[in-house]
Amino acid sequence: MFLAVTGRVIKTFSDPTFGLMGQVDFAGVTKTINLSFVPEVKINQYVMVYIDLALSIVHNETAFSEGNTI
What we know:
Largest sheet: 5 strands, antiparallel
Distance between the termini: 20 Å
Strand order of the largest sheet: 3-2-1-4-5
Order of helices and strands: EEEEEH
Number of helices: 1
C-alpha cells in the first residue's frame, strides 16, 4: 500500500538526466517532480504523485473529491 498526493503542475522543464520535470504545487508547497510517466501533462493540470514521481493525470473533478489531498 502507498500514499499518493494530488498536486497542480505550475511549470514544466526538461532535465538532461531525469527527462521531463515540473514544479508541482501541493496547497502552497512547491516541489520538483519527475513527470516522465505523464509526458502529455499541461500546466494547471493535476497529477497523482508518489515519492517525487507523477504517476497519472487527475481530472479536476476527481482532484477535489472526498479522500484526495490538495
